[in-house]
Backbone:
């Protein structure tokens, strides 16, 4: 078991580079299943979730080669891949369900273990299932697996999502590109990662109109061909660095960061007293001496991303004043509040609202990461806490961040990865 040991008190300064987005690359890897041959993805981060998806594709009969230094990952798909995603992998990474749509489209059958709840909430799949059923699939739950079949192939249909779910939009787009006829998907997610997927699919030969809007019109084609594709920059990693600068009163240039994907986030940071400006190949954030309080509510893109909510709680924990943070997507995302409270943050949670009363300083303590973003937010809190903070269970952080502690050290932070012996009960 590993942990990060952080000694707080450094003002972060320097340049940091953002890799391709985790939440895009995982779906692009799944999309490779739609064509026989080799798809190559560029700017792929070296994170645990990419390795889990690679293992999943391996078990489906694909060959995955990853050149870490160059961030290049290629997926070679055979003419007849398998169609089952095992429980051990889906359990380890919920995004495994994004193979459901492509397998059903290409193999006309898919068996994907049903993911349970996770640390950020119950996370339903009803929209994925109803959408695939509308495209003609029969879907049922058998022995803990979603078993989907469309023996004569999928057929285009009109589907209106109840909520712009990222995962359901992606699964349905990947299913519809090889369906017979025309599919109209309404009220879809517009996250940059969804747009990235649509762009790659179009380059593979898919016919998709309305990309980046709320309605996608897809004309099914007979087959797709493999391509090389550069992954969209990780806006949540870029946002993490923006918060890191804002929290520590630092001065950080986020290279490769797409500020246009973070407009509302950067506006909120400006309201909190940070200075944000354009920089060559990215943007620069200079943090205030002490942040001002601002209110935030999470919403689907282009709203404030739920993935950056824990960072906002951490920033507001040391702000001058009180603020209200509202979580509208994942009900359990405030669980980490109990951990940040160990550092002295004053946060009261009431349903999906967190009322944060800023304090002048936090004090270092051992804490535990419960998910990727909560873990990274605790690391940032440790950077401004007095003394030493140990963030346990960093495997969660490694799922989504490519060498977080190395990049932090590059900006001057005192952060070490340490081994923690497991406690053996007598
Ligand atoms: N939902 C349903 N039914 C469905 C689908 C979703 O009720 O069929 C609900 C969920 O329970 C949730 C809401 O809709 O309350 C939003 O879920 P969505 O489907 O949009 O999210 P996701 O696809 O499961 C992705 C990211 C998350 C990110 C969300 C929201 C990946 C692998 N994950 O999840 O990222 O928070 O979109 O933007 O793309 C992370 O990176 O740490 C992470 C959790």
Residues:
């Amino acid at each position: 078991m590993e942990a990060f040991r952080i000694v707080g008190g450094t003002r972060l300064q320097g340049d940091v580079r953002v890799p391709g987005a985790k939440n895009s690359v995982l779906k692009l890897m799944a999309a490779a299943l739609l064509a026989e041959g080799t798809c190559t993805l560029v700017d792929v981060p070296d994170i645990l979730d990419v390795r889990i998806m690679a293992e999943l594709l391996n078990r489906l009969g694909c060959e995955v080669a990853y050149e870490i230094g160059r961030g290049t990952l290629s997926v070679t798909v055979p003419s007849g891949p398998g169609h089952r995603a095992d429980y051990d992998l889906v359990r380890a990474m919920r995004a495994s369900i994004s193979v459901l749509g492509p397998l059903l489209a290409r193999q006309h059958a898919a068996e994907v273990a049903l993911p349970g709840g996770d640390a950020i909430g119950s996370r339903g799949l009803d929209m994925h299932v109803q959408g695939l059923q509308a495209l003609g699939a029969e879907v049922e739950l058998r022995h803990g697996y979603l078993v989907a079949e469309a023996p004569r192939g999928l057929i285009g249909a009109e589907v209106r999502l109840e909520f712009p779910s990222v995962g359901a939009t992606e699964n349905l787009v990947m299913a519809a590109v090889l369906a017979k006829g025309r599919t109209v998907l309404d009220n879809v997610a517009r996250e940059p990662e969804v747009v990235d997927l649509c762009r790659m699919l179009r380059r593979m030969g898919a016919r998709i109109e309305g990309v980046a809007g709320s309605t996608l019109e897809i004309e099914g084609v007979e087959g797709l061909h493999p391509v090389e594709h550069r992954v969209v920059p990780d806006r949540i990693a870029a946002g993490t660095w923006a918060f890191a600068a804002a929290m520590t009163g630092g001065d950080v240039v986020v290279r490769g960061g797409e500020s246009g994907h973070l407009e509302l986030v950067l506006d909120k940071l400006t309201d909190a007293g940070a200075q944000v400006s354009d920089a060559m190949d990215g943007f620069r954030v200079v943090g205030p001496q002490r942040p001002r309080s601002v209110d935030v509510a999470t919403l689907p893109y282009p709203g404030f991303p739920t993935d950056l909510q824990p960072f906002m709680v951490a920033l507001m924990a040391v702000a001058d004043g009180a603020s209200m943070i509202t979580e509208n997507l994942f009900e359990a995302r405030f669980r980490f509040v109990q951990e940040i409270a160990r550092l002295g943050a004053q946060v009261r949670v009431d349903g999906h609202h967190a009322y944060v009363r800023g304090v002048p300083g936090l004090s270092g303590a051992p804490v535990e990461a419960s998910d990727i973003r909560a873990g990274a937010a605790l690391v940032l809190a440790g950077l401004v806490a007095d003394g030493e903070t140990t963030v346990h269970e960093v495997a969660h952080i490694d799922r989504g961040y490519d060498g977080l502690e190395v990049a932090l050290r590059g900006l001057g932070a005192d952060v070490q990865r340490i081994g923690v012996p497991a406690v053996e009960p007598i």
Notes: The longest strand covers residues 2-7. The chain is about 30% helix and 25% strand. The radius of gyration is 22 Å.
